[in-house]
Amino acid sequence: LLYEGDLLAARISDAQFELLMGDDELSELQGIEISDRIKAQKVNRVWDLIYMNHQAIMDDFQWIIQNKTSAPLSDTNRVIGPPELVFLEPGAVVEGCILNTQQGPIYIGESAEVMEGCMLRGPIGIGSGSIVKMGAKIYGPTSIGPGCRVGGEVTRSIMIGNSNKGHDGFLGDSVLGEWCNLGADTNNSNLKNNYSEVKLWDYETERFERTGHQFVGLIMGDHAKCGINTMFNTGTVVGVSANVFGAGYPRNFIPDFAWGGAEAGYRTYKFEEACQTAEIVMARRKLHFKSLEKSILEHVFEQTAKFRTWEKN
Hints:
Blueprint: E1 2-3, E2 6-7, H1 14-21, H2 48-64, E3 78-80, E4 86-88, E5 93-94, E6 98-100, E7 106-108, E8 113-114, E9 119-121, E10 124-126, E11 131-132, E12 137-139, E13 142-144, E14 149-150, E15 153-155, E16 158-161, E17 164-165, E18 170-172, E19 175-178, E20 181-182, E21 187-188, E22 199-202, E23 207-210, E24 218-220, E25 225-226, E26 231-232, E27 236-238, E28 243-244, E29 253-254, E30 258-261, E31 265-268, H3 271-284, H4 291-303
Parallel strand pairs: 3-6, 4-7, 5-8, 6-9, 7-10, 8-11, 9-12, 10-13, 11-14, 12-15, 13-16, 14-17, 15-18, 16-19, 19-24, 20-25, 21-26, 24-27, 25-28, 27-29, 28-30
Antiparallel strand pairs: 1-2, 22-23, 30-31
């Protein structure tokens, strides 16, 4: 299936798959163009996730509530806007909160909890089992995946799943992968002081690229973490399994498996040590760190070695 010439999906043989993995041309594939049949959003750059998320939440909400009835919302809450745009899955707990649906819906997944004193302004999606801490302020469009912990102030951001921003601090126009952890009072900038266009590190071109936007915050890869009071500059990319800490502003691109910060510099987070941490972190959520996941991380470790320039010395 092709959309405006781009490959979306294919049914292929094992031999064709091996060719595809080898980056060889698959000229024998017969493509079917479907752009004249459906309307799709194409994600070309990572910052597209931020700017497409509003419509994505709106579409998903209408799709996911089809033929379903929301669990009752406690009368300890106040809804501003259409009440039918608040949808709770079974087991969701929301008490003593202000929910504003004037700009979009608010979806709260199965067994998720929004603690008292929270203020949510849609469109917002909160995944199953996630916890929004007391007094949190979340502005849409924001998507919080399953198993997350969220506190402080969040605006126009995405947390893929099982990541923690459990304390005060600001997260804006950002995307966090899985198993990330932001230390208490971590803040990111999403707007430059001179209001100019934000540039962001691009792995494909191996340089900073123009985003065309004024508001771009923090992009953080899976298993990345930062210490308390970390300050991220506008348009910062943090690689997979990076561990950032210390005073001052870290650089705008922190390579994968980097360990350190602005003052002390960086060393390599040894692969086996990173895997041990991942195993402990996942076990806290009663999940196992499988051999497949380790193989994926090992591939990332090898492919990104060229960005850890200190290793060459």
